[in-house]
Peroxin-7 (Oncorhynchus kisutch), 324 residues
Amino acid sequence: MKTFKFPARHGYAVEISPFIPTRLACATSQYYGIAGCGTLLVLEQTETGISLVKSFDWNDGLFDVTWSESNEHILLTGGGDGSLQVWDTANPQPGPLQVLKEHTQEVYSVDWSQTREENLVVSGSWDRTAKVWDLSRGGQSLCTLQGHEGVIYSTLWSPHIPGCFASASGDGTLRVWDVKTGRCRLAIPAHKAEILSCDWCKYDQNVIVTGAVDCSLCVWDLRNVRQPLSRLRGHSYAIRRVKFSPFNQTVLASCSYDFTVRLWDYSRTEQPLLETLEHHSEFVCGLDFNLQIPNQVVDCSWDETVKIYTPLCLAAPPPSARVW
């Protein structure tokens, strides 16, 4: 396990570059995101550890980060002042290239579309709206999507369907949106508690997972949402982030306010919990799979660390595992 320590900053989100498998970014905040400023850390994984490539400071907490899908140097963060910040690691200047300010409360989620024909970003805010942006068209959003009755914690593009994203909210619903029509295609009362995260399956366009304050993960088939395909229990506090594996159709990871990261196989009706990792001493908020280094996981925590590792349960994938 490799560890990077960043004193006086608390990790909220981490994402590995889609271009450089050893490059990652971490969005952090001072004072647990309650007050103070934020710092975007750009890190490099080496043979022996993790080194700092560059850091960018912002005047409010940073809660999420996403890499551009078209330029290896560009990143986007969401901040506590309701703005989105565009950063360029190749730019010698310390400030952002662009600041997008339309949300009226914290931006808790940002995601860059993986569809090649698009260059779209979606943001989700505590102002209960999601906004879609085309950064090549200036600083105004293309559209604002409304419908949630609680704060939005997660917005994520479908890796399969152009112009489609999912959102998870404090109102307990998961919603699927169509950008072309500007309407909600599907609203699922997924939990009787706030939903803090969602993620799409990388192999099936109809499967999505939610993680909530009720300590459970629910895997949904969007063609039949009367009940989840699987309900996974094991965490003792709220689930902050969920991620499907890019290498195994039914394997996913979750991190929680119980200080743990857990690996699951939802296809297993008995003992779906594969592994529990207890290597943090505070809330674990950020989580990502490496798309190019099989089964490598990165996470970040309020304990001021980023960690990179391969869970034991994934070190030797079963013969039946579907691998890209």
In short: The two ends are 24 Å apart (CA to CA). Confidence is low (pLDDT under 50) at residues 318-324.
